[in-house]
Amino acid sequence: LEQHEAPVVSMMMYANVGAAYEADGKTGIAHYLEHLAFKGTSRIGTRNYPEEKKALDQLDVLFDKILAAEAAGDQAKIAELNEQFKTVQAEADAYVEQNKFGQIVEQSGGTGLNATTAADATRYFYNLPSNKLELWFSLESERFLDPVFREFYKEKEVILEERRMRVDNSPIGQMVERFSEVAFTTNPYRRPVIGYQEDLRKATRADVKTFFDTYYGPSNLIAAVVGDVDPNQVKQWAEAYFGRYQSRTHPDQLVVSEAPQTETRSYTLELVSQPWYLEGYHRPGINDPDHVVYGMIDSILTGGRTARLYKALVEPQIALDIGSANGFPGDKQPTILLLYGLTAPGHTVEELAVGLEAELQRLQTEPVDTATLDRVKTQSRAGLLSQLDSNEGMASLLAEYEAKTGDWRNVFEEIQAIEAVSAADVQRVAQATFRPENRTVGKLISAGDSAPTDEAPTDEALEEA
What we know:
Elements: E1 8-15, H1 29-36, H2 49-72, H3 75-93, H4 100-107, E2 111-117, E3 122-129, H5 133-143, H6 152-168, H7 171-183, H8 197-202, H9 205-215, E4 221-227, H10 231-241, E5 265-271, E6 276-283, H11 291-302, H12 308-314, E7 319-328, E8 335-343, H13 349-365, H14 370-388, H15 391-405, H16 410-420, H17 423-433, E9 439-446, H18 459-464
Parallel strand pairs: 5-9
Antiparallel strand pairs: 1-3, 1-4, 2-3, 6-8, 6-9, 7-8
Region (Disordered): 444-465
Coiled coil: 71-98
C-alpha cells in the first residue's frame, strides 16, 4: 500500500500460525520459532557453517541422551552428559556472529525490529528507509527459506526464564493461565501461548523444524508492505526473492469443536497477591456478524473513565482497577470476552462480582442510551482510524484481516459495521452472552495480610498467556 508522506516503509511478515496449532505435549514451539527466527541462516550469523552444523547436530544427539538418562533416573550419566553438552555448546558458540541479523537491519537505518507470538499468529515486523526496501525482501525471504535454529538450547533458558517471570512467579499470570484451562475443554485456546514448563524443557530442535516445515510454507505466510513504495517494484522484488520458495502442501485448517458450556465454571487460587476477580463469557470469533457488537459492549463496560464498570466499581473504591480482553486469548476461533478487576483494600472479590453482575444485567434489561452508544462508536472508529493512520498499524491490520477473514479489504468495512450497531443489537447480544451457564469465574484470594499488589495484565501478557 502506497503512503508517500515520508521516505519510510513498514513491513509485516504474518505467519498464519500460532500456539493454537501446537500439539498437546509440544506447547511453546510457536514461541520458540519466533525467537529463533532472529538467529540467522547458513549464511547470516555464522563464521563457518559446515563446522557449526557439526556441533549443532552433536548438541541434538547429546540432549536426546540427557532426556533418556533423566527418564532412567541415571544421575551419574546425566552429570557426564551435561559436561559433554557444555563443551560442545562452547564449540558451537565460537562460530556464532551474535545478533548479525539485527545488526544488518540497524546498520541500514532499520527500526522497530521485533516479533510477537499469539494464539492465532506469529508476526515479524520492522521499518526501513524506503531506499532500503529490497534489503527486507532479501533478509525476510532468506530467514524463512534457510533457517538454522542456532543457539536453540541457550534460547531455551531465556524462554524458561520468561515463563517463570510472566507466569510461575506472577500471581495474575497463574490466574490467567488457569482461566483458559477452566473456560475451554477442547478448544486449543486452553493452552498457554508461552507453553508449559515441562514441554519447554523437553522441546528439541527437531520439534521446531517439524513445526516450521508444516506451517511456514509460502501459502501460509502473508507479507504486507506499507509506505513510500512503488507497487510495481515491490511486485518484482517479491517475485525475485520469494519466488525461490518451493510450494508445500497447505497445512490442515484448525478445526475447533468446543461443546457449548452448560453450567457456570469456577476456580479459586490462594496466592500472595491482592485479590483479583476474573469473569469471562464465551463469544464467537472475528468472522461472526456480531463481532463489532462485542466491541461496543466491551467499550460500554470498560472503555475509560466514563465506562460503566469504572463508575460502578472504581469510583466508589470497590475496585482499584478494571479491564477486559475482548477475544481472549485469540479471536480467529470461538473465544472469550474476559472482564477482570483488582479489589480495593477493605473490599472482597464477592463485592466486585455483585457490581459486575448488576452492570451485565443492566445491559440485558435496558437499551443502551443514545449518548453512550454514540460515544463508544466514536471511540471505536477513532481507535481503528488511529491504527490505520500509521504505516505499522496499517501493515499489521491488512495482514491480520487477510489471514483471519480471507480478505484484507474487510478492515475498511469495519467502519461501516461499527456505525450500523444499534441499541437493540447491544441488548440482543448481551442477552445471548451474559448467561450463567456461559460464564467462567476465577477468584484470586490473598494468602497473606501484606500481599503485594500485582500489576494488571497488559494486552501483550494476556495475548501470550
